[in-house]
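Dear colleagues,

I hope this message finds you well. In preparation for our joint manuscript, I am sending the Aminotransferase class V domain-containing protein (Aquimarina aggregata) sequence together with its predicted structure, so that both groups work from identical material. I would be grateful if you could confirm receipt.
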Amino acid sequence: MKNLRKEFPVLSQYTYLNTASSGLLYDSLLDKRQEHDLDFLIGGSIFRNSQQEFLNGVRTTIANFFDASANNTILTPNFSLAFNTLLNGLEKDKKVLLLDQDYPSINFSVQSKGFEVCFAKVDASLEQNIEKAIQKNKPDIFAFSLVQYINGIAIDLEFVTALKTKYPDILFVADATQFCGTKNFNFKDSQIDILGCSGYKWLLGGYGNGFMLFKDSVLDHLTPVSYKKTALEVDYDPSYTNLQARFECGHLDTYNFGSLKNSLDFLSKVGIKTIEHTIQELTSFAKEEFTKLNLLEHSVLQRQKHSSIFNLNTNEKVFNHLNERNIVTSLRGTGVRISLHFYNTIEDLEVLLKNL
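The corresponding structure tokens are as follows:
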């Protein structure tokens, strides 16, 4: 892993502990991006002639990486855009279960569109809170992040599987932006109906790309009756009601989606299981050391498993102190958030601990 650090110029200048805010650009990806624009420069519209074939290759790469169906994979500039498109296709009489501290791109989007909402509390008993909320409120949809962006609490995927088996009629929609790229994940075997992700964080894809994965037949639940009726009455081609037509309106940027494809290939070469193991080692060390310094909230301390995101119980003064010493973190919630990826090392954490 230390040799791979040479791919990331930022790491020679900073102790970078901020992937939850933005993943890093790396040398070989920069080469590919420059090659893309050179092809466009000298080809013009000829370059665009192969766009559809190229984008199909991007979908296939995403599907293979997460063991999903390429036909049920859609490309989107970011999770938020696709999620709002999804919500626009749902009848507003649906009741949606949310997590009370979840990312505003989920919670605000749902609440602002007039859905009836209910909440489960994010704490040490997250899974039990979710099931109690389902029993009490009987929601039609459960929309949630797999990893909480503020404190890094991660929902138990085995619990999600058991919950969906118990409540098969609830539509499970997951934001995996703070998850994908940190663990080996099989979408087909999961009980999640729809999984979305922006590619600029743990997948290292840069900005302007993301995807959504759908289980078979889910589209039928997302397309309004009026949409289907119009397509039939005006005699539009059936493709106007498929996943791509519903979610991929207009042209797609081969530069950005090419970056995502290249990064998935890059992560595959490193090995997602190797990445997962490295992150687990860093996370275990970090949690142990942060616990000694009394820097973690009670909810995190009480949970056996945790993501690689931590919110440290400190303040803006400490954040500025770290920043002055080229230690890159984020202010989130009531503390300083740090996040660890495979290009981080124990030495990075030791630099942080020394300054804390």
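For the figure legend, we might mention the following. The chain has a mean pLDDT of 93. The chain has two domains: 4-26+271-355, 31-268.

With kind regards,
E.M.
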